[in-house]
Design goal:
heterodimer; A: mainly beta; 12 strands; globular; B: mainly beta; four-stranded antiparallel sheet; 50% strand
Chain lengths: 112, 112
């Protein structure tokens, strides 16, 4: 079945360090791919998305590129801030389908 | 717009008790879902609805009931609480054609 695998956390970084959170997926067809972020005590909110191969989603300094050849959608940021501390979820949704499939989440801690 | 609202924010139940988690949205979204979030397991779909009067089961429906009498509201009922239902519960909504889901702030439930 369709699935999303993302790197286990927690990831601990110092402020201004580079971030990469790996995400790979298994799905038939051409799903849309998402990164959601969950700040402490809140629900998930969409961070960025990409709907077709080679698309790059970006928001708030975060980027991810839809790589069909490696079935990956890694999240990157060049310089993290303390305010980026959160849990990040990779997800996919099939065209015409209802369900969004989420990865297990990766917790990021950024130290000042 | 309040978005997606959930009540209560926290709840403690004893084994065997029943309760209803409330969810409401004011965005006129047709699609609504309930998820549970457990450590290391991401979000798992409990039940969902594609419109008023229409509901269906997700991955982990056992022990939960839902109904959808209006577009705005989608309550989740725990029939006889069990410790295995200790979790954080999120309600989400979206447009039928949309890909992004909008999440409520969650309900943290503990069953003793």
């Amino acid at each position: 079945g369709d699935s999303v695998t993302q790197m286990e956390g927690p990831v601990t970084l110092s402020e201004e360090a580079c971030l990469t959170i790996n995400c790979t997926y298994t799905a038939t067809g051409y799903p849309s791919l998402f990164w959601y972020v969950q700040y402490p005590g809140e629900g998930l909110q969409l961070l960025l998305k990409a709907t077709k191969a080679d698309d790059k989603g970006s928001n708030k300094g975060f980027e991810a590129t839809y790589r069909k050849e490696t079935t990956s959608f890694h999240l990157e940021k060049g310089s993290v801030q303390v305010s980026d501390s959160a849990v990040y979820f990779c997800a996919l949704k099939k065209a015409g389908g209802f369900k969004t499939i989420f990865g297990a989440g990766t917790r990021l801690f950024v130290k000042a | 717009n309040a978005g997606v609202t959930q009540t209560p924010k926290f709840q403690v139940l004893k084994t065997g008790q029943s309760m209803t988690l409330q969810c409401a949205q004011d965005m006129n979204h047709e699609y609504m879902s309930w998820y549970r979030q457990d450590p290391g397991m991401g979000l798992r779909l409990i039940h969902y609805s594609v419109g008023a009067g229409i509901t269906d089961q997700g991955e982990v429906p056992n022990g939960y009931n839902v109904s959808r009498s209006t577009t705005e509201d989608f309550p989740l009922r725990l029939l006889s609480a069990a410790p295995s239902q200790t979790s954080v519960y999120f309600c989400a909504s979206s447009y039928p054609s949309g890909e992004e889901q909008y999440f409520g702030p969650g309900t943290r439930l503990t069953v003793t």
